[in-house]
Amino acid sequence: MGFELHSFDAPGAHQESIVRKYMRAMFQSGDLDSSGFSFFAFAANLPTNCSNSQWAELVRKIERCVDADILDAPVEHRCFKPNEQDYSLFKGEQFRPKGMPAMGPDTAAQAESVRKIMCIGDITPDYYRCAACTKPNATSRCGKCKVVKYCSRDCQAKHWKSGHKKCCQKAVENCTLRSVLNGGNDWLHITANECEAIAKGLRSMQQSDPLARKFFHYFDAVSNLGGCFVG
Question: Residue 143: which of 126, 130, 129, 156 has the closest Cα?
């Protein structure tokens, strides 16, 4: 079964250096071959994965190297990863982050390589756009899930009736990082600041510990991509 982690933000052109740095680390550790590394930007969100036993081991390492003040600090509203159904309108090249190359038959071989560590799909959700009409810079959000955004009350009402009502997951109140790490595969959000703290803690272990090294590079990257969801 295992665990997967997906970045909150889809890395665009302004985060190219972040993605390249992460991909280079994955290539050097043997998690990605050279053709995939050379064609780094196929995907919407930056992911990684591990087995259940690896995750349990990683959590033990994190609990040793990250301050308890951070592990046990409650986040007022910790959201779940939105259901893809909420972003069914976000299809096509116009929603792929700027700087991402178009998908085409001539890039199929490289794409298959990158699929190992990058999320590729027809839908490219953007959690900063209105989920109902796709307008950018939406300012209001669902009061229940605390993550799906809208540009107006009308859009929110329409989206609720059209399907969000069925898949909306209420954000967990006063949830700590420790509880997320020790929880199940439920796709809760780890904030950017928490990811930064985890990367800082794992840094000292990464030279001699392959698992710590892999996740140091991952959490270091997603701390600049809005954090990540773990499921």
Answer: 156
Per-residue pLDDT of the chain (231 residues; tens, 9 = 90+): 689 999 998 766 567 677 777 877 777 766 655 444 433 444 467 888 899 999 999 999 999 999 999 999 999 999 999 998 999 998 877 777 665 444 444 444 544 444 444 444 578 888 999 999 999 999 999 999 999 999 999 999 999 999 999 999 999 999 999 999 999 779 999 999 999 999 999 999 988 899 999 999 999 999 999 999 999
- In 39-134, the DSSP E strands lie at 47-50, 75-78
* Half-sphere exposure of residue 172: CA atoms within 13 angstroms, side-chain side: 17
Per 3-state DSSP, the chain is made up of helix, strand and coil in percentages (nearest 5) of 45, 15, 45
CB atoms within 10 A of CB 159: 21
CA separation for the pair 219, 7 (Å, rounded): 9
Encoded tokens for 97: 């982050």
pTM as predicted:
0.83
